[in-house]
Task: structure prediction
Amino acid sequence: MTVGVPMSLYNEFQAFASQQGISLSSLMREATDLQMRSVKLRGSGVEAELKELRFLLSNIANNVNQMARHSHRVRHVADEGGLFRKLHELETTLDDFVTSRLNENE
Result:
């Protein structure tokens, strides 16, 4: 496949590819693949799920911040291990969600 771009853009792409240690054709393939996945994610209704997830994460962050302020005042973290376990569970859940959505749209 041949794609025509202005020389200035070509030079920019080439410089970026060199910085990343990949060929220009690999850069173009990966960029095209990522763009297509992004469009699929937005088009499949996942955007509403991501907005809900953002809302929930904001609430969780607010709660963690309140816990940190309280712990700072009393100089003790209540159930520190439990908090970190829950944060790890949240991270795993988010990772699984994003991975499943990306795999679903391949």
User: Anything to note?
Assistant: The chain has a mean pLDDT of 80.
